[in-house]
Write a structure and sequence with these properties.
The chain has 253 residues and is an alpha/beta fold. It is built from 13 helices and 8 strands. Helix 8 packs across helix 10 and helix 12 runs parallel beside helix 13. The longest helix is centred in the last third of the chain and has 16 residues. Bound molecules: 2-phosphoglycolic acid (PGA). The site of 2-phosphoglycolic acid has 13 residues, from strand 8.
């Protein structure tokens, strides 16, 4: 049986004080009964990773970054390396998020380079895929997700796949308040697991596939009850301690 995983993606939000206050609030409120059923991580902005790491010290909440670069060091102004993230106790890195694909312009090729570097460095990717509204309306969801998976994971071995979490995030559901129905999400999750099963059945059976896109406390239970949904990547609702905690508790049921 797969354990649920709930990760908060804080995006470009909070400030130094509110980031630490939010992290401390979560660390205090989450107890062993939740951790038995759910693994929890938060992904603050780079500049607050250190403060949040301090606030989380002694708790079981893992730390993740929202991005990374694929080179070790050097003349890459504005970029951050895997070693730097490990220095700050990060365990996870979000790769392929739709805002990086569609706002910043990251390509599948760039995401694949980051994927290889992240895994080689011992960090765990949370690899996001998902279709635009026009692609869903044109019945292209499976095709788009298949391409993102094939290109993003090109050259990745079955052994390495064990460290990867995939997050299905339909772009039309992100930050819009418009959640995919549990049936729509389950169908794509099952498709993703089947794609990975064509590489390795055992890895696919254990693969953690998160749903992301307007997950809230009031829809989390239904989503997490679906056979192939193993938790959530939570944006807006992860910025409100009580809401995020309620989503984590929904995972306990
Ligand atoms: P949302 O964001 O929960 O605010 O829709 C999810 C995400 O982008 O990871």
């Amino acid at each position: 049986m797969r354990k649920l995983f709930i990760a908060g993606n804080w995006k470009m939000n909070t400030d130094a004080k509110s980031a630490s206050v939010l992290a401390l609030g979560l660390a205090k409120a989450l107890d062993t009964s939740i951790y038995k059923a759910v693994d929890v991580a938060v992904c603050p902005p780079f500049v607050y990773l250190q403060g949040v790491a301090t606030a989380l010290a002694g708790s079981k909440i893992s730390l993740g970054a929202q991005n990374v670069y694929f080179e070790d060091n050097g003349a890459f102004t504005g970029e951050t390396s895997c070693a730097m993230l490990k220095d700050l106790c990060c365990e996870y890195v979000i790769l392929g998020h739709s805002e990086r694909r569609h706002v910043i312009g990251e390509t599948d090729g760039l995401i694949n380079k980051k994927m290889h570097k992240t895994l080689a460095s011992g960090l765990k990717p949370i690899f996001a895929v998902g279709e635009l509204l026009a692609q869903r309306e044109a019945n292209e969801t499976d095709k788009v997700v298949k391409t993102q998976i094939e290109k993003g994971l090109a050259g990745i071995t079955a052994e390495q796949m064990k460290d990867i979490t995939i997050a299905y995030e339909p772009v039309w559901a992100i930050g819009t308040g418009k959640t995919a129905t549990s049936g729509q999400a389950q169908a794509v999750h099952a498709f993703i697991r089947q794609r990975v099963a064509s590489l390795d059945g055992q890895v696919a059976a254990k693969l953690c596939i998160l749903y992301g896109g307007s997950v809230k406390a009031n829809n989390a239970t239904e989503l997490f009850a679906m056979a192939d949904i193993d938790g959530g990547l939570i944006g807006g609702a992860s910025l409100v301690a009580d809401e995020f905690l309620a989503i984590c508790r929904a995972g306990q049921v």
